[in-house]
């Protein structure tokens, strides 16, 4: 059935549609919708890819699939069993379900990193009047270059809607008057000079991939004096990512930007050490952070800063309607980026309160509440990925997330792993009152929750290889620290940590200091109860804690706090081996060794119910 308003153009459009797509009435589909339970079968995916040269709608689908599954960059996969079906969503778009029904699924045939979910096909804003609809939740044209006025509007909207909440990184900035240390420098984009950061200045930070040696543009001891003069920083020798970032800051009307290669003296170990250990301030206090997620090296341009530097929108005219295959959502776009594989970039993103992401297709804006983008008119209400967004949450899940993210990422110098996480550990210590970060964390392990922090495990697909120093020697770090080992690590993320107070029999706890001296730590008389959730599938499954969980157990009887202040130094003979048993009075059957006391009779003195 064809809507009469399109009869004049229908013959032309029919010639650009295959036999299957020509039988679809796109006007009626957008007008009345297709329930997901009544989705329309299209064709198998391999056939749609073959028809992309003769059918507009097949070409729209093919463009998305090739982009998201990277079919042109990696060896081909068998997609013959994938059937495509179509239904509508309540946001002005069609959704293409590109996987076969459950009983026919063989997802192991498709590498997981290349599965991007369903394809959303949007109606462009210029056609909404045909349905008597407002333009909200439909797509707009993305310009050849970034719309600076739109970016300013997003920032203004954040200020007006979120107020003080987005002025700081969750609890880190509450009632906090901290400023940048005096040794931090910034680039003055007006004077084109590297200058000490003015007190309380508003500045932008940059997160990008170096992509190899770039000594020709680094700030070094012999270049610092010259670069401190007006005009001393020449853009002629700067890579495109940095040049475009400076241009973008000027267009925003800001004056200062922090760029590591220019603001840290690269051949001064003391300057590098001081600044690396204050990354929580450098990124946490920045007005916003530019994230160059569209390139693989500093030589790549920021997509959209200059003409012809980003992929144009792919829009097809089908039965008189302008349809657009939306680019990936922010999380998907980042997952496909080289920027997301680098370890240093994790904390640069996690610590920033506002972020502007430059990807190959469009620009995204993210704050603690919103994710906005160039191609969708209704500003998204997607959940922000902001680190420490929930200030009421427990600190250990934040730590677990940071460890899991950093450990799986790549480093040019493997021994940088702890430095690359220092900003996050500093932020955690300050946000949750864990004390001196250098005492709260050791070798990347959280000492304040040591009994949980030690429960990391190697990813089963990761070879157990020690990290090495630049000279090839193994790092002299303990084997119990996750940072000692290359590759991904994991914690049991399916567990839910809930506060619980229990009686404890362990009071003293010791750790060896960096100098080799044994240090006694404080012990908090509280532990965390862990509820292992195992729900059966079916109606009413919500993901909440079930009434009768299959397993309920305790993982530890103590939490380690920061070192005693002043610390108590004790003289303890180091044991050659250690064996211990923990008993408790918790009333939870099967939770502790006391339920299996008969197995330990030979190890224990006479017990009177204890």
UniProtKB/TrEMBL annotation:
It comes from the Eukaryota. InterPro entries: HET. Residues 203-348 form the Heterokaryon incompatibility domain. This is Heterokaryon incompatibility protein-domain-containing protein. It comes from Suillus discolor.
